[in-house]
Structure prediction request, 430 residues.
Amino acid sequence: MKFNFLFKNIILCWILVVVQNVSKAQTTKEEILTSPEKSGGVNFAYPYHANKLTAAPKGYLPFYISHFGRHGSRYLTNENDYFSVLNLFKSAEHSNNLTSLGKEALKRIEKICDSVKGKAGQLTPLGISQINNIAQRMYKNYPNVFSDGAKITAVSTTVERCIKSMNIFSSQLQQGNKNLIINPDAHESHMQYLNYHTKKAVEFRSSQGSWRKEYNQFVQVQIKPERLLKSLFINSNNLPDSLNATEFMFDLFSIAGNLQNTELKITLFDLFEKEELFNLWQCKNYSLYVQYANAAVNKGIMMDNAKPLLKDIINKADSAIKTNIHGSSIRFGHDGNIIPLAMLLHIENAYASATNPLDYHINWRDFEVAPMAANLQIIFFRSKKSTEILVKFVYNEKEVRIPEIYSNILPFYRWKDVSSYYSSFLNDTQ
Prediction:
């Protein structure tokens, strides 16, 4: 009888998991179909929504914030990503090979290229605004942390958009308190933990990576560029022999997804059918999940990329606790840094491991984990009546949980439990 009861419970749990996954898969597709901007993935503009923050237990006050942020919204990182598409349209125009929709698309792309020329990889006005607002809200939510005498450190990778994000963030905090002393730093030495990549990870992500054969097969099944080509070009057979139709579709899709980060009131999403947008996003999401997150095929090697950063987080937090200071550690990097960090921390919805490529989008969604200006804030609290330090994890300005760490005071955790858990799987050789 006991066995039968246990077996029934196991079956019930399995059914619930299957139902939840099917539901989530459908939800993801519906989200993309109804909100095509989410198909931008890591180009999705920061989706801030006012969220109520849970008050700390009685007697506890915030004193330290450990922060890591992705830079704000930017233009595409390579100018050729825009102009290769423009050049194809111009060539087709020259040979009278554009449909009416193709001619309209060319006009839009010309305006886009005129606007972005010389700006590749730079922060957009929206990106500047995002960083300002995040800093402003952090100051407003935790003014105690930034009171007179606060020790603030601010570092970034050596990439211009990260440096600018760091400087904007720092300046905004100083607007809140003119007495704050912050000396932003983007020295090469910080790259060893802010933007660390193991040799194994680099080799895995290379063009020779073992995962690419299966990925390319997935793309072949999902991406059918013929309809798009016919809608834009009178005779798709008259296009250059060197043209890779699938790559062209991805390039046009990238421009479409990134436009939401610019000041331009132009869309290219209407050139695609909704199902095409979902399939294109699926492929991009697949690629990022395998290369930076916890897809089973990478055997967890991407976690090692974030270990030096996690060590820095723990060490600086312990120092703040030990020296009894208040303040913050501000850090800025890239999507390729915050994705493995969120995974290593086991943040909900960022850690899941999947084996079947068809399930990748169910378990992990790039626009949730790493939109433009994605950020992590670990808030530290202490009380005069207790030696116990409490922490709260806030991801993209929403309180999140770490399912693997027990707490009876959620969304708060005891730092000793958090530190012990993370330290247990940090490789001392990293």
